[in-house]
Every structure is written in structure tokens, then in C-alpha cells.
Specification:
Shape: globular
Strand content: 25-35%
Largest sheet: 7 strands, mixed
Number of strands: 11
Low-confidence stretches: none
Distance between the termini: 35 Å
Number of helices: 8
Order of helices and strands: HHHEHEHEEHEHEEEEHEE
Radius of gyration: 17 Å
Helix content: 25-40%
Structural class: alpha/beta
Strand order of the largest sheet: 3-2-1-4-5-11-10
Length: 235
């Protein structure tokens, strides 16, 4: 079983319950100002989780759909916002056609094998309409390496203690998550440079149009916090 098939459960929701919409609002403003989407266009949010970004798009009048592999996260999102159009789905097998596809908050690089990550990008390209946009918000490996905290502990709202241990190994950033109640999980994200992502996108038929280094739209450089690439389907 892949690490992401059993991690995004109720404990994931507990661990990350503190996340707010501030960064989501900033990035959605950047997406709208950059791509200028028509509100009749269909947008797809990949790895949507509970639908944090979908809610904002929907509230602004956009036609947004989300998919995520975690049934737990999808059900939680629907319980909170029953009108959200989110469902369980695999980014390697996207169904439908979309004018804009989004991969936000490092929802890429989950597969350790390169061909699996390319399969996801090919699926994205195939699901884009002619001249459709793809927007990917990924971590910047150089920034991550300079800021990596090897170990930290936190106490959740219910009093549970959680230890998080981080390392970079074989081109992956790996986090071990240990709950004092005995449950243990792992996260593994493959590290791709900006240049690697651009090359992979080109191979899948998506030409890079621009790159940002933050949710405020700052120009990208080697020390940027994020690598945000947007491009158009060329075929």
C-alpha cells in the first residue's frame, strides 16, 4: 500500500485542523488575476481534500469541481458543505474535460516512480480542453532544504501529543508522524526542481507560460518559498 492510501484519515484532519484560508485566498486571487477565467468555464481542483479551495471558488461564483483519493476527506468536506461538487478520484485517471486544472498546496510528487508522476501529468493534459490552463503550486526544494526542521512536537486540540520527524533521502522529503496513541504514518514527496517540472510539463503537452515564487505573485528565484508554474495545453 502506498503511503497516501492510509494517511489521509481522521488523524490527518486532527493534525492539520489549524489550517486557515489565508494562503488559499491569496493564491486564488493570483489565479484569477493571472488566468482571468470565465465564470462559465469548468475548473478542476486535484487533490482537493475537504474542498478548502473549492469553497472559495464556489463562493466567488465559479464552476469548480474537486477530486481526491481520500474518501475520508471527501466525506468530511461534503458534511461541512453539502453543495460542493467534490468526489473520490485518481489524478492518474481524470474523467471529463476542463478549461483549467489546478494542483494546489503540493498535491503532486506523491509517487516515487517517475513514470507514475508522468502518468498523472499525461492524465491532466488529456483532461484539458484545447488551450486549457494547468496551474501547479509545488514546494521549492532549495527553500525546503534551508528551512527543514528535523523534529518537532505538538499537542492537538484533544490533548494528543504528536511527534513529526523530517529528513531528505533519495530525492524525497520524508516525514514520520507518530501519535502518542500508537498510530504512525509517513509522508513522502518527490522533490522536483523548477526545471524538472517544466520539462515534465512539456513532455505532457503543456507549455510553461509563467512562474511565481509566492502566493503574492512575486517573481521566482532559487530561494523562493514556492514554485508556482502555469502553462497552456499545446495540442
Amino acid at each position: 500500500m502506498e503511503w497516501f492510501e492510509n494517511w489521509f484519515d481522521e488523524n490527518y484532519l486532527k493534525l492539520y485542523s489549524h489550517r486557515n484560508t489565508e494562503d488559499a485566498e491569496k493564491q486564488i486571487n493570483l489565479i484569477i488575476n493571472t488566468l482571468n477565467p470565465d465564470k462559465h468555464e469548468t475548473i478542476l481542483d486535484l487533490g482537493c481534500g475537504e474542498g478548502r479551495h473549492c469553497i472559495i471558488f464556489k463562493d466567488r461564483g465559479f464552476n469548480i469541481k474537486g477530486i481526491d483519493l481520500s474518501e475520508t476527506l471527501i466525506n468530511s468536506g461534503k458534511n461541512k458543505e453539502p453543495e460542493l461538487d467534490i468526489e473520490v478520484g485518481d489524478i492518474r485517471e481524470i474523467k471529463g474535460k476542463f478549461s483549467i486544472i489546478l494542483s494546489l498546496f503540493t498535491s503532486f510528487g506523491y509517487f516515487q516512480r517517475d513514470y507514475e508522476n508522468m502518468k498523472a501529468l499525461n492524465s491532466i493534459s488529456n483532461a484539458l480542453k484545447h488551450a486549457g490552463w494547468f496551474w501547479i503550486d509545488f514546494l521549492n526544494p532549495e527553500f525546503l532544504k534551508s528551512r527543514l526542521v528535523p523534529e518537532s512536537e505538538k499537542t492537538l486540540h484533544d490533548g494528543t501529543r504528536v511527534t513529526e520527524m523530517r529528513r531528505i533521502e533519495n530525492g524525497l522529503v520524508i516525514k514520520d508522524i507518530i501519535f502518542e496513541t500508537g498510530e504512525t504514518y509517513i509522508e513522502k514527496i518527490k522533490l522536483f526542481t523548477k526545471e524538472q517540472l517544466e520539462t515534465m510539463l512539456e513532455k505532457s503537452g503543456i507549455a510553461t507560460t509563467g512562474v511565481f515564487g509566492s502566493y503574492l505573485g512575486e517573481p521566482w528565484n532559487k530561494s523562493s518559498e514556492r514554485t508556482i508554474i502555469y502553462g497552456k495545453k499545446t495540442g
